Amino acid sequence: MEIKIFENEKEIGEVAGRFYVDFINANPSCVLGLATGATPLPVYGYIAEKYAAGEVSLKDVKTFNLDEYCGIPQDDKNSYFTFMRENLFSKTDVNPANVGFLDGNADPDEESARYAAAIESAGGIDIQLLGIGRNGHIAFNEPGEEFTGEAWKVKLTESTIAANSIYFTDSEMPRYAMTMGIGSIMKAKKIILIATGESKAEAVRAMIEGPVTPHCPASVLQQHPDTVIYLDRAAASLLK
Ligand code: PGA
Fold first, then answer.
1. Element housing 152 (H / E)
2. Which of 49, 109, 154, 188 is the most exposed place for a label (fewest CB within 10 A)?
3. Would you call 126 a catalytic residue per the annotation?
C-alpha cells in the first residue's frame, strides 16, 4: 500500500483528479471502477471541470460502479445510478452504453454472474476507486466472518444505515444493497482509496496498521499489489 497524505479534500480532488485525467488521456478506452458517496465528489468535480475545458474526453471509457440499493427503481432520486448521472455522467461525455451498473432489483445470483462476465469481457477494471465506511467497509462489504467473493446481496448494518439515511429525507432508506464483493474488487489492476475527515480515522488506522481481517474489510487491501491510499490530515490522524 502506498499512503499519500494531503492537507484537505480539495487538494485530494486536484491530485487524484489530475491522475485520472492523465490516465484517461493516455488510455482513452480504459475501464474505471467508480464509487458513490461524499468522498469521490471532489475527484468527479475535477474531471467534469477538465472535460468542460476540453482537456479530456470520456467517450470511450467504460465504467462499472461498486453498488446499488435494492428495492428502489434505478431512476429513484436516491439511487446510486442517479448519483452518478448527476455528479459525473451528465457532466461529461460518458457514453450511456459504456456504463455498467448492478441492478438491485434483479435475481442476486444471476446479477452477480452477469456483472462479473461484463467486467471480464471489458478486459477487467484498470482502476477501482474506493471510499471507506466508518466501520471499515469497502463498497457495501460490511465487517463479517469472511471476505466476500463476487457481487452479492448484502443486509446493511446499523452503522451504514446511520451514515447514509441522511440522504433519505422523505423515504425509508433501503435495508439491502447489491455490491461488488471483495473478490471482485481485488481483481482490479490498480486501486485508489480516498478517506477524508476524522470520522474515518479509526477505520483508516485498522485498514493500514491492523491485521488483515474480514472484521475490517478494507484491511484486505494490504494484500493488493497496487493500492494507493489518499488521506487528508484528519483521516490520517490516528496513524503511527
Ligand atoms: P462516504 O461513504 O464517501 O459518503 O463517506 C464512503 C463509504 O461508506 O464507503
1. strand 152-155
2. 109
3. no
Ligand 1 centroid from CA 200, angstroms: 9
Please tell me whether residue 162 adopts helix, strand or coil conformation.
helix
Question: CA–CA separation, 19 vs 2, rounded Å?
Answer: 15
Digit-coded pLDDT (tens) for 113-171: 999 999 999 999 999 999 999 999 999 999 999 999 999 999 999 988 998 999 999 99
CA 6 to chain centre: 20
Residue with cell 483508516: 204
**What DSSP designation does 134 have?**
T
Cα of 125 vs centre of ligand 1, distance in Å, is 20
- Burial category of 5 from C-beta neighbours within 10 Å (exposed 0-12, middle 13-18, buried 19 and up): middle
Dump pLDDT digits (tens) for 185-225. 999 999 999 999 999 999 999 999 999 999 999 999 999 99
| Residue whose CA lies nearest to ligand 1 atom number 4 | 37
Q: Which residues contact 187 (CB under 8 A, 6 or more apart)?
A: 119, 124, 125
Span 2-232: which CATH code?
3.40.50.1360
CA of 191 to the centre of ligand 1 (A): 16
